Amino acid sequence: MSWFRYRPGTWILTLTVLQGGGVYGDKAAAMERFRENYRTIVPDNVKARLVLENDEICYNVDDLLPICEELGIPLVLGKHSFQS
Description:
Layout: E1 2-7, E2 10-14, E3 16-19, H1 27-40, H2 44-47, E4 50-53, H3 61-71, E5 75-76, H4 79-83
Parallel strand pairs: 3-4, 4-5
Antiparallel strand pairs: 1-2
Protein backbone atom coordinates (compact mmCIF):
# COMPACT_ATOMS: atom_id res chain seq x y z
CA MET A 1 0.00 0.00 0.00
CA SER A 2 1.04 3.54 -0.53
CA TRP A 3 0.58 6.56 1.69
CA PHE A 4 0.34 10.16 0.54
CA ARG A 5 1.12 13.10 2.78
CA TYR A 6 -2.01 15.23 2.66
CA ARG A 7 -0.76 17.92 5.04
CA PRO A 8 1.71 17.96 7.92
CA GLY A 9 0.81 15.14 10.30
CA THR A 10 -1.92 13.75 8.02
CA TRP A 11 -1.35 10.80 5.72
CA ILE A 12 -3.93 9.13 3.50
CA LEU A 13 -3.86 5.74 1.85
CA THR A 14 -3.67 5.91 -1.93
CA LEU A 15 -4.84 3.14 -4.21
CA THR A 16 -5.14 2.69 -7.95
CA VAL A 17 -8.43 1.02 -8.88
CA LEU A 18 -8.40 -0.76 -12.21
CA GLN A 19 -11.59 -2.13 -13.72
CA GLY A 20 -11.41 -5.20 -15.89
CA GLY A 21 -10.39 -4.17 -19.39
CA GLY A 22 -11.28 -5.24 -22.89
CA VAL A 23 -12.00 -8.77 -24.00
CA TYR A 24 -10.65 -8.35 -27.55
CA GLY A 25 -12.61 -11.32 -28.90
CA ASP A 26 -11.06 -13.85 -26.48
CA LYS A 27 -11.69 -13.28 -22.79
CA ALA A 28 -9.50 -16.17 -21.60
CA ALA A 29 -6.54 -14.95 -23.67
CA ALA A 30 -7.04 -11.36 -22.45
CA MET A 31 -7.05 -12.54 -18.85
CA GLU A 32 -3.87 -14.53 -19.44
CA ARG A 33 -2.20 -11.46 -21.00
CA PHE A 34 -3.12 -9.48 -17.89
CA ARG A 35 -1.53 -12.14 -15.67
CA GLU A 36 1.65 -12.23 -17.72
CA ASN A 37 1.94 -8.44 -17.98
CA TYR A 38 1.31 -8.04 -14.27
CA ARG A 39 4.06 -10.52 -13.46
CA THR A 40 6.62 -9.16 -15.91
CA ILE A 41 5.92 -5.47 -16.58
CA VAL A 42 4.14 -3.88 -13.63
CA PRO A 43 6.67 -2.37 -11.18
CA ASP A 44 6.47 -3.25 -7.50
CA ASN A 45 5.52 0.28 -6.47
CA VAL A 46 2.42 0.04 -8.70
CA LYS A 47 1.60 -3.47 -7.49
CA ALA A 48 1.60 -2.14 -3.93
CA ARG A 49 -1.23 0.29 -4.80
CA LEU A 50 -3.26 -1.68 -7.35
CA VAL A 51 -6.72 -3.12 -6.71
CA LEU A 52 -9.06 -4.65 -9.30
CA GLU A 53 -12.76 -3.85 -9.61
CA ASN A 54 -15.48 -5.68 -11.49
CA ASP A 55 -17.27 -3.86 -14.29
CA GLU A 56 -20.76 -4.10 -15.70
CA ILE A 57 -19.82 -5.28 -19.18
CA CYS A 58 -16.77 -7.54 -19.52
CA TYR A 59 -15.44 -8.80 -16.18
CA ASN A 60 -17.52 -9.77 -13.17
CA VAL A 61 -16.39 -10.84 -9.72
CA ASP A 62 -16.26 -14.49 -10.77
CA ASP A 63 -13.80 -13.58 -13.53
CA LEU A 64 -11.54 -11.39 -11.41
CA LEU A 65 -11.46 -13.20 -8.07
CA PRO A 66 -9.29 -16.11 -9.30
CA ILE A 67 -6.81 -13.65 -10.83
CA CYS A 68 -6.74 -11.60 -7.63
CA GLU A 69 -6.16 -14.69 -5.50
CA GLU A 70 -3.44 -15.99 -7.81
CA LEU A 71 -1.54 -12.70 -8.04
CA GLY A 72 -2.26 -11.36 -4.55
CA ILE A 73 -4.23 -8.35 -5.80
CA PRO A 74 -7.05 -7.00 -3.62
CA LEU A 75 -10.51 -7.02 -5.22
CA VAL A 76 -13.00 -4.24 -4.61
CA LEU A 77 -16.65 -4.91 -5.34
CA GLY A 78 -18.14 -2.24 -7.61
CA LYS A 79 -21.66 -2.20 -6.20
CA HIS A 80 -23.24 -0.41 -9.14
CA SER A 81 -21.45 -2.70 -11.57
CA PHE A 82 -22.39 -5.73 -9.48
CA GLN A 83 -26.09 -4.86 -9.70
CA SER A 84 -26.05 -4.47 -13.49
